[in-house]
Amino acid sequence: MSYLKIATHVPLTHADAVREAIGKAGGGKLGKYSFCSFSSKGTGRFLPNAGAKPTIGKVGKLEEVEEERIEFVCEENLKERIVAAIRQAHPYEEPSIDICLVEI
Q: What SUPFAM superfamilies is this protein classified in (predicted)?
């Protein structure tokens, strides 16, 4: 069976909701455990360009936000469902979602 590692960056205010959505969609299952993830905190930086509708910040102004990186593994066949769940729970117009193939 193929597995993926998926990571996303989310403002601290929405981290619990995104983690919950990931787990409910089937992300973070390891053996007899579920809702497994690892988080680290950092600073996200971005510049909303013309036409953007930023949740935080203003168009044309560089923004910094305290964010949490949430990473977890999942079966490859759940990718679309989990990405959709992240996008639904995530407050950003364009959330960062990193996906890579892993061997478990």
A: NIF3 (NGG1p interacting factor 3)-like (SSF102705)
Cα–Cα distance, 21 to 34 (Å, whole number): 12
Instruction: Tell me the pLDDT of the chain (104 aa) as tens digits.
Output: 899 999 999 999 999 999 999 999 999 999 999 999 999 999 999 999 999 999 999 999 999 999 999 999 999 999 999 999 999 999 999 999 999 999 87
Residue ranges in 12-102 assigned as alpha helix (H):
15-24, 79-89
The pTM of this model reads: 0.93
For residues 12 and 69, give the distance between their C-alpha atoms in angstroms, rounded to a whole number: 9
Amino acid (1-letter code) at residue 87: R
